[in-house]
Amino acid sequence: MAVIDIKVPDIGDFDEVTVIEILVKPGDTVKADQSLLTVESDKASMEIPSSHGGVVKELRVKLDDKVKQGSIVLVLEAEADAPATAAAEAVAAPAASAPAAPALQAAAVAAPMAVASAPVTAPAAPVAAATPAQTMPAHEPTAVTGQLPHASPTVRKFAREIGVPLAEVKGSGPKGRITLDDVQGFAKSVMAGDVRTQAQAAKAPAGSGGDGAALGLLPWPKVDFAKFGPIERKEMSRIKKISGANLLRNAIMIPAVTNHDDADITDLEAFRVSTNKENEKSGVKVTMLAFLIKAIVATLKKYPEFNSSLDGDAIVYKNYWHIGFAADTPNGLMVPVIRDADKKGVLQLSQEMGELAKKARDGKLSSAEMTGATFTISSLGGIGGKYFLPIINAPEVAIMGVSKSTMEPVWDGKQFVPRLMLPLSLTYDHRVIDGAAAARFNVYLSQILGDFRRVLL
Ligand code: CAO
User: Could you tell me the domains of the chain?
Assistant: First the structure.
C-alpha cells in the first residue's frame, strides 16, 4: 500500500480548467483509469482518470475550483502496483451524438472546436513509493462538426446507458450545460408521458410531431426561424394536437384518391331561399348542408361500399347512416355526428346541425356526439375556394369536400346558360372503392342535387 497524490495530467492546450463534476468520494474504491472528476475549459470538458487503483483517502478539490496541470486532485491509498494501463481509452466517453467518433474526451461546449492532440501524461506523483510515470494514450479530441449538446462525458455516458437523447435535453447548468439531474428529469418526463422523444414521435402511429425517421424519410428540417426575423411561439391546442395526429395517420395509411365534380344547385338554392322565407318565423334556417346530407344518404344507400369500413380483409357494411360534419371552432377542427340522418327531414337536420356546431364551438360536445359516423362531409362553402382534397376520417372509407357554389355558364345543348354550380370533392379509400364507383357516386349525387325529387325514388 502506498499513499499517493493524484494530480491533473497534461491537459493539452488548456492552462486552467474548472472542476464541474466530482465522480468519487472518500472511501470509494477506484480502479486504475477510472474517471475521478470532470473538468471544463471554455471550449471543452474532459475527465481526469486515476493513474492507480486504490481507495480514495481525501479529496483535494471541490466543485468550481480552478485546477491546472499538476494540481493535486485527491489522495489515494493505492493498491500495490496497479497503475493505469495503456488501455485508458476506457475513460473516454464518446459524444452521444457522434457515435462513430473514436475515444473522445472533449465535448464541444459552445462552438465547434478542433483541439490539437496532446498526450496526457499519467499524473501519478507518488508520495511514499516511487512509481514510474505512466504514459496515457493520446488525448484525441476529435474536431467536432455541428453543435453537440453541452455535457460532461459522464453525463453523456449516463444518457447513453439509459437511452436519453442528449440533443433533446435542456441544460440547466452554467452556459446551458446538461447536468445529471437534467438527464434524470428528462427520463422521468418521458416515463410519465409528459414528453416524447423525437424517436418516439416518429414511431408513433398517430404521428403527431413525428419526424419521419420510422418511415425512412429525411429528418424534419430544423430551422432557427428567429435568425430570419421576429417570431412568436405558441403551443398547439389540445384539439389540434389530437386531430393532427389522426389526420397524419389517415393521410399516410389510406391510399386515397379524390374525384371532383360539379352539381347544378340552381333550383335547389332557389327552393332553399323560398323555404327560409316561408319559415322565417320558425327560427330554423334551412342550410345547403342539410340538403347535402339528405342527398348523400340517398347516394350512400345506392352505393353501400361508401358507408363501410375495412376490418382486416373484410369490408363491414353499415345499415345505419350517421353523418359527421367538420366544424371549424376557435380551438380547431371538430366533427360532430348526426345520428340516423336517413330518418330525419331537412328542417330537423338543419336544426340539429346548428345545435351541434354551437356545442362544438363552445367546447361542449360529448364523446357520443363525436363518434359513430359512417361518412363525413367537410364544407368550406360558406367561406370560399374551389375544390380541395379532404382527408378521410378513419375508419370511414370516404369523405365529401364541398366548396363554394358560383354562377357559371353551362352549355344546355343550344346555348350557355347561367347556373349555380357546387364543387364536390369526394376522397375515397381505393382499397375499398374503385375509381368508377367514385365517379358514379358523384354523378348520382349531382343528379339528386340537380333535381331533389330523385330522393323519393
Ligand atoms: N356555397 C355557397 N354558399 C354557401 C355554401 C356553399 N357551398 N355553403 C354555405 N354557404 C353560405 C350559407 O348559405 C350562408 O350564407 P347566408 O348567411 O347568406 O345564408 C353562409 O355561407 C355561411 O354558412 P355557414 O358555413 O355558416 O353554414 P353551413 O351550414 O354551410 O356550415 C358548418 C356549418 C358548421 C359546417 C360551418 O360553419 C363550418 O364550420 N365550416 C367549416 C368546416 C371546415 O373547417 N372544413 C374543413 C375541414 S378540413 O380542414
Answer: 1-116 (2.40.50.100), 256-456 (3.30.559.10)
